[in-house]
Protein: HTH marR-type domain-containing protein
Organism: Streptomyces cacaoi
Amino acid sequence: MVHDEPAGELADEAEEVALAVMEASQLMIEVSARALGAEDESLTLAQLRTLVVLHTGGPVKLASLAGTLGVNPSTATRMTERLERSGFVDRQINPDCRREVVLRLTGAGARLVERTLARRRAEIARWVALIPGRERAELVAGLRALSRAAGGPGTGPGEEVRRTRGIMSGAGPG
């Protein structure tokens, strides 16, 4: 039996990359949790993700938000009701179709998202500053390659909302 060394090496390399990506993903979750906790300890990362989708996508139908988050509409309803009680989301009946609920980020919600993302970017920037220049360039190239392999640009929060025309006409957050 002939052992296919290049395929074995590729599998080993893929495993090494997968483990490194998973480790980096865990760090990103931790930095997101710290950034959110510094702004509002009562919110969860799932709620932050909802706010980020609304911040990115503008006014959104509840059903589109649920699809973007990968949850059922009742879960999205409960989450947005909590965010509404906290003053971060405004829920209104769609005037064009009274069976639909339209969600908008309030000014307070937009400010929370902006401050949280700024904290996250600042912490990541501190880490990046510790990486030698050549390795930073390799990191950027590697992360962009991974992003392309995973579906390319336009796969971030809110993109499903745009694709399914979940965005309502009108003003953005505020």
Q: What stands out?
A: The CA atoms of residues 147 and 153 lie 7 Å apart. The longest strand covers residues 89-93. The radius of gyration is 20 Å.
